[in-house]
Design a protein that fits this description.
- It contains eleven helices and 34 strands.
- With 690 residues, the protein is of the alpha+beta class.
- Strands 2, 3, 4, 5 and 6 form a five-stranded antiparallel β-sheet that branches. Strands 7, 8, 9, 10 and 11 form a five-stranded antiparallel β-sheet that branches. Strands 16, 17, 18, 19 and 20 form a five-stranded antiparallel β-sheet that branches.
- The longest helix has 25 residues.
- The N terminus is likely disordered.
Length: 690
């Protein structure tokens, strides 16, 4: 047994020694694989050329993704022949580290370090970078400092190395003082590809984001697809399957959503056209997003690249990032004032010097109250890669951005930020380890006592205004939020048909008589969203062509806490000639006896007749083609009369109504199917006077 154990130990040592030996790409090491060796050497040479370009781009703050991916494909050819070459392992690791899945670099960098610590000038830099992602901050700092000492050209990268050392110095403290929140992967939304740029409606019930998942377009030279914009809604606490945003918002270029306006009716995005990245705006009409329009030249300039735009809460300012081509990346956030008449943005100016660092700054997001700015940055006080920071507007200026803390931020890239109006939930993008693949979208839930909303959250909203509201449904405050805001959401529908109606909503300050906001509900869904300041009494007028005027009052006491009110506004159709199918009126088979299930529909009709005292109608009965024409004619008349009699019994004057049976003469569908016959068996109301 002892001999067996010793033999096993000896074999283990031999195996480890073999694994740990660096195998050079020399012809003598591959005498039996001459052709493969030549191909491997040629691949390394080609890979080195683009690898060098990628590194140059990286330290210029230029996107190096494509070149690193090209180099990776070449180095992997050599890896198949010789997996035990230190330098080739390191180069593969570097390529993967600079991908959107940096954790995949770990085994290659570790193996390179084990095979030959001195195989490449950048070994210490990337070994330190790997250890930083693993959270081994002291070890990471040690290797970054070794790179400074040992690499002759380290001064060329001094700012980057110093930044890494600072990150590793502050990261343990940030991680120790963890933020009270959960950060959860939104698995229903994410894919194994890159899912980024989440933007949400203020109630957090609809999300728009970008993804480079397969989209039917041709992939690029390294097999990646362009980004398209996707959308999904929250139903019963679960996100639905994402679908491409409808309309003309997506192109064959990268379309990256940046920010939804607070009412959800317009969106900022950036895309590259002819080698230049600019900001565009798309508007929502019904269910479709318009073909994006490039923003005014004061924002989307001819000289620079711009991206990561965000609307200001006042609908006057616009915040964005601009690459001034100084080698410092997107490091300045501008604000452009919009002319109220021409609706063009004026000359851009720095929003705040506090927002700038020597590294990439942006995306940016302004809270609905206009008092908080969320900034993503690779500089500032990052603990590695992009981190998310918070700045508050106080005494006429923005405060220095403060790191939002761990686990919102990690040593990986954590960027983009969109928060709900109640400050309870936010969405970010991150390529931290453990996701579905590449960048994923994560939900941040800030801890604190749960709040029961007066009305349960529905799917999503499509209209809003900067700031809060409240009515008699408002509940007590939630201390964790301290948000004096109520979001009023809902939809406008036809009182009888229950179908969506596009309506104009006007918000008035009843005390001053000033109109605060005029907007329309969505033409496809009837949905809207608005938020109003506390401390006012508001009048809300709803108007739609052919419908009775509707109005409501909302009194929002000063200091009211956040609340969400969801209301369906039923509009009453009074347009002469309108024919409305009453689909929820039911009769016993072959008879004119109304079933109890009809009462809800009939009572809505009664209310309409009482609300509009001069309204006159015709009740029409229709049948399918089963049976004789004479029988169907009589049945349709009897059923129409039964409806009229019900209304009379509820106090509606018979002089305001007529009834008529149409039998089977006016089908709306084919009588050859059971579904078609069911549609033809119906009661209709035609407005004959108002």
């Amino acid at each position: 047994m002892k001999i067996y154990k010793l033999l096993t130990l000896a074999l283990g040592i031999m195996s480890f020694s073999t694994f740990a030996q660096n195998v050079e790409f020399k012809a003598g090491n591959f005498k039996d694989n001459k052709d493969e060796f030549k191909a491997a050497v040629a691949a390394i040479k080609e890979g080195d050329e683009v690898f060098e370009l990628a590194n140059q781009d990286l330290f210029k703050n230029v996107d190096a993704r494509v070149n690193f991916k090209k180099a990776l494909a070449k180095f992997e050819i050599a890896q198949k022949l010789n997996p035990n070459n230190a330098e080739n392992n390191l180069k593969i690791g570097v390529c993967l580290y600079n991908s959107t899945n940096p954790h995949k670099s770990f085994p290659y960098i570790e193996k390179a370090y084990e095979l030959d610590k001195a195989c490449h000038d950048f070994m210490d830099y990337y070994y330190g970078a790997m250890m930083q992602l693993k959270g081994e901050y002291a070890t990471a700092s040690k290797h970054f400092k070794a790179f400074q000492v040992n690499y002759k050209r380290a001064d060329d990268y001094a700012s980057f190395v110093q930044q890494r050392i600072k990150e590793n110095g502050r990261a343990p403290g940030i991680q120790k003082e963890a933020v009270r929140c959960w950060v959860d992967n939104v698995k229903e939304i994410n894919s194994k590809y890159d899912d980024i740029a989440p933007s949400i409606t203020t109630d957090g019930a609809e999300i728009i984001f970008s993804s480079n998942r397969p989209n039917g377009h041709d992939p690029d030279e390294v097999g990646d697809y362009d980004y398209d914009i996707y959308t999904t809604s929250l139903n019963d606490g679960t996100w639905g399957k994402p679908v491409k945003a409808k309309g003309a918002v997506n192109s064959n270029s990268d379309d990256v959503s940046n920010n939804l306006y607070f009412d959800g009716t317009k969106m900022l995005l950036h895309r590259e056209v002819d080698g230049q990245t600019d900001l565009f705006e798309s508007n929502l009409t019904g269910a479709n997003w318009s073909n994006p329009t490039k923003l005014h030249g004061n924002i989307s300039s001819k000289k620079y690249d711009e991206k990561y735009g965000a609307y200001g809460s006042d609908d006057v300012k616009l915040f964005f990032s601009r690459n001034t081509q100084t080698g410092a990346g997107y490091n300045i956030i501008f604000s452009g004032l919009r002319d109220a008449v021409r609706m063009d943005y004026g000359v851009a100016a720095p929003a705040s010097n506090n927002f700038n660092s020597k590294f990439d700054d942006g995306p940016v997001y302004q809270a609905i109250n206009g008092e908080v700015m969320y900034i993503c940055s690779k500089g500032q006080g990052s603990m590695g890669g992009y981190d998310i920071f918070k700045s508050v507007y106080e005494t006429g200026k923005w405060t220095d951005p403060v790191n939002m803390g761990y686990p919102i931020n990690t040593p990986y890239d954590d960027f983009f930020f969109a928060i709900t109006a109640n400050n309870k939930f936010a969405y970010i993008a991150s390529n931290r380890e453990g996701g579905e693949g590449g960048f994923d979208i994560y939900k941040v839930t800030f801890w604190g006592p749960e709040k029961e909303f007066a009305i349960e959250t529905e799917d999503y909203l499509l209209a809003s205004i900067a700031n809060p509201i409240s009515d008699n449904q408002i509940e007590g405050s939630v201390d964790v939020n301290k948000v004096s805001m109520t979001v009023f959401k809902g939809k406008t529908i036809d009182h009888l048909t229950r179908k969506s109606v596009e309506a104009e909503l006007e918000i008035v300050d009843n005390k001053t008589g000033n109109i605060i906001k005029t907007f329309k509900s969505n033409s496809a869904t009837g949905k809207f969203l608005i938020s109003l300041e506390a401390g006012k009494n508001y009048g809300i007028a709803v108007k739609a062509d052919g419908y009775l005027f509707h109005s409501e009052n909302f009194d929002i006491p000063d200091g009211s806490a956040y609340n969400l009110v969801n209301k369906t506004i039923e509009l009453k159709n009074i347009k002469v000639g309108s024919i409305i199918a009453l689909r929820n009126i039911f009769f016993d088979t072959g008879k004119s006896t109304l079933r109890p299930e009809s009462n809800a529909e009939l009572d809505r009709l009664v209310k309409l007749m009482k609300d509009v005292s001069n309204l006159k109608i015709e009740i029409g009965g229709h049948t399918d083609n089963q049976g004789s024409a004479k029988m169907n004619q009589k049945l349709s008349e009897d059923r129409a009369k039964a409806v009229m009699n019900y209304l009379v019994g509820k106090g509606i004057a018979g002089s305001r109504m007529t009834y008529k049976g149409y039998g089977m003469d006016k089908p709306v569908a084919s009588n050859s199917t059971s579904d078609g016959r069911q549609q033809n068996r119906r009661t209709e109301m035609k407005i004959t006077g108002n």
